[in-house]
Amino acid sequence: MGLSKENCNRSSSTTHKTTEIFDLAPKSNPPDPFPIYTRRAEDNERDTSENGSNPIISLFTPPATRSLSLSLKFFSQSGSEQRLQSSAPPAFHHHRNQTLTAVRSKMITIPYLTALTTYFSYGLLFVFGQLRDFFRRIIDLWSHSSLQGYAPICLGLEDFYVRRLYLRIQDCFNRPISSPPDAWFDVVERVSKDNNKTLQRTKNVSRCLNLGSYNYLGFAAADEYCTPRVIESLKRFSPSTCSTRVDGGTTTLHTELEERVASFVGKPAAVVFGMGYVTNSAILPVLIGKGGLIISDSLNHNSIVNGARGSGATVRVFQHNTPSHLEKVLREQIADGQPRTHRPWKKIIIVVEGIYSMEGELCKLPEIVAVCKKYKAYVYLDEAHSIGAVGKTGRGVCELLGVDTAEVDVMMGTFTKSFGSCGGYIAGSKELIQYLKYTCPAHLYATSVSPPAAQQIISSIKVILGEDGSSRGAQKLAGIRENSNFFRSELQKMGFEVLGDNDSPVMPIMLYNPSKIPAFSRECLKRNVAVVTVAFPATPLLLARARICISAAHTREDLIKALEVISSVGDLVGVKYFPAEPNKQQLEEGRVKME
Amino acid sequence: MIGRLYVQAVPTADLNRNTDWFTYPGVWTTYILILFFCWLLVLSVFNCTPGMAWTVVNLCHFVVTYHFFHWKKGTPFADDQGIYNGLTWWEQIDDGKQLTRNRKFLTVVPLVLYLIASHTTDYQHPMLFFNTVAVLVLVVAKFPNMHKVRIFGINGDQ
């Protein structure tokens, strides 16, 4: 049922509405359309040892994945997903220590009553906003504006959401901090005298547990190996190169950085830019132009959307993380050709992300790469959140899912998340990087990466790979994996709806209702836990969430405290949409029976 | 029991955040329930006959949906850089595809409201006249042939 739903287009998705209403409540987790790919949280917990520092060695491989490694030559025909698997390239291989990781397509399951009340709440907020706007317009007729004759900066409807919905709960967003974003940090308190229309900072700070920063490996605060070297390079070079790469901004640090990044990611060459957002939006117009086709995932980041729009190519979208729909769109577009002239496309690029930051989901990379090879399209992988955070040695989603890096044509990533620095990189073949260095405006006209920041990246890569002489890198990687799996499984046991796959350090907790967003955020802050809540329009209207980012710097006590706080706030606010799982003893019995 | 019913939110490929909420489960039911509760509200506030209440609901529904579906153009946020600034909400849903299930549902609702309103008022004037005008305007505005049509340039782009 899950497969057929993904294959329908939007107009017929509502035919399933009446049948969907009568889905009964899941027992513990929502029904899994792809059980053969699932590695449940219980499996992970069972496998991690007591002291928690060993990598996950699995003695039990689910029968379907065992047959998958044999099925490279042997084609199985059940279901379109299997068909894609059977045409996978020979580079598709397992790691011995990891079974095929859980890339399950988990649909967001909403209690029906919550959906109705969420629509109603948004409707009410909308009505109130419109009424206030209406009266404001009447009152403004009387007042005299000094800008007679000028065009208005905003058209009437454009800033409605910001003025009437966002400003009401403004204190939950944009909170200033006054310390490095480590596992614990200082949040500056703000007060408002006019009901949240403006906020003033006070001198008070509160020490809070940081569950919002992208500090996956704990490099955000001072590190014993990286920080002295960064300070030394600051003294040696200067805070800024004050020049573009081609003029005078290429230092020895930059060339060393590019070599290290290329070898870390597993590609022949790499080029580094000063800003992560710019990496996407300045590269896509260079790689493809008018007459080309970009097919991007529907939940791609704004930088990719911006770059795709700026390129002038035709942009099409496929349903999030659904390789079958991608194939359908590809076939349609290749058959149609360019709009109006129907000539064949000059180039086709498929853009996907490694970990989607709003869902915490891993990309279904092996299947997507297989589809792209079949239709001879290029693959562009944006690993902003997954580089350094997933994979046995931190090399990202390709390592985790067992995809050969030679299969992915352009690999992009940022240094802001796991490496504690700033900037982005593109890694690819030598010819590609050479071409980019001649043409990309971010290389030719933008200031190069700041030298201390470059040194921070180099040092953090050395720590991750263990080249600093200690095992801290391996500890961090194991730490983040255990922390994420532990946290996710505990939250799911409490009855929260948590998205995202196992091993992913990003876990959104679904809130849905617009009034629960500020309630959750403020109550957590009162209890000294800082969470980031995300609402419309960054997420779809119904699906507001609180997004938790786990770090390797979080200790077990921190996580347990966070769990207690989130559990009590969840009870208070009413976001435990699933029934809480029974306690451990009954769970053990169930496991014995199944095996 | 109703608290235990779950629905699955199938991810859409609709990029327009202004209209993708209409593809998630529960919208149709919410719409119908809001109309029903408005009828109850009108009945309790104005203390009129059920027929008059349905007529009031029908006319208010006409004004509100005409204003928001067919008059207001663009989106309530600036993220999309104004690519939908010339399109009303009705022209934006389902990416401009005509005769989808959502559009058919939205066309049927004013018709059903008209039938209920005229039946409960026993087809008397002047309510019948106003109800008929309301339903005619709404249904004509929703025809596929009226996509991006601006009669006499009313509500056109500057």
UniProtKB/TrEMBL annotation, chain A:
<keyword id="KW-0472">Membrane</keyword>
<keyword id="KW-0663">Pyridoxal phosphate</keyword>
<keyword id="KW-0808">Transferase</keyword>
<keyword id="KW-0746">Sphingolipid metabolism</keyword>
<dbReference type="InterPro" id="IPR015421">
    <property type="entry name" value="PyrdxlP-dep_Trfase_major"/>
</dbReference>
<keyword id="KW-0812">Transmembrane</keyword>
<comment type="pathway">
    <text>Sphingolipid metabolism.</text>
</comment>
<dbReference type="GO" id="GO:0006665">
    <property type="term" value="P:sphingolipid metabolic process"/>
</dbReference>
<comment type="similarity">
    <text>Belongs to the class-II pyridoxal-phosphate-dependent aminotransferase family.</text>
</comment>
<dbReference type="InterPro" id="IPR015422">
    <property type="entry name" value="PyrdxlP-dep_Trfase_small"/>
</dbReference>
<feature type="region of interest" description="Disordered">
    <location>
        <begin position="1"/>
        <end position="58"/>
    </location>
</feature>
<feature type="transmembrane region" description="Helical">
    <location>
        <begin position="110"/>
        <end position="129"/>
    </location>
</feature>
<dbReference type="Pfam" id="PF00155">
    <property type="entry name" value="Aminotran_1_2"/>
</dbReference>
<protein>
    <recommendedName>
        <fullName>serine C-palmitoyltransferase</fullName>
        <ecNumber>2.3.1.50</ecNumber>
    </recommendedName>
</protein>
<keyword id="KW-1133">Transmembrane helix</keyword>
<dbReference type="InterPro" id="IPR001917">
    <property type="entry name" value="Aminotrans_II_pyridoxalP_BS"/>
</dbReference>
<feature type="compositionally biased region" description="Basic and acidic residues">
    <location>
        <begin position="39"/>
        <end position="49"/>
    </location>
</feature>
<dbReference type="InterPro" id="IPR050087">
    <property type="entry name" value="AON_synthase_class-II"/>
</dbReference>
<feature type="domain" description="Aminotransferase class I/classII large">
    <location>
        <begin position="208"/>
        <end position="566"/>
    </location>
</feature>
<keyword id="KW-0443">Lipid metabolism</keyword>
<dbReference type="GO" id="GO:0005789">
    <property type="term" value="C:endoplasmic reticulum membrane"/>
</dbReference>
<dbReference type="GO" id="GO:0004758">
    <property type="term" value="F:serine C-palmitoyltransferase activity"/>
</dbReference>
UniProtKB/TrEMBL annotation, chain B:
<dbReference type="Pfam" id="PF04061">
    <property type="entry name" value="ORMDL"/>
</dbReference>
<keyword id="KW-0812">Transmembrane</keyword>
<dbReference type="InterPro" id="IPR007203">
    <property type="entry name" value="ORMDL"/>
</dbReference>
<dbReference type="GO" id="GO:0016020">
    <property type="term" value="C:membrane"/>
</dbReference>
<feature type="transmembrane region" description="Helical">
    <location>
        <begin position="21"/>
        <end position="46"/>
    </location>
</feature>
<feature type="transmembrane region" description="Helical">
    <location>
        <begin position="127"/>
        <end position="144"/>
    </location>
</feature>
<protein>
    <submittedName>
        <fullName>ORMDL family protein</fullName>
    </submittedName>
</protein>
<keyword id="KW-0472">Membrane</keyword>
<keyword id="KW-1133">Transmembrane helix</keyword>
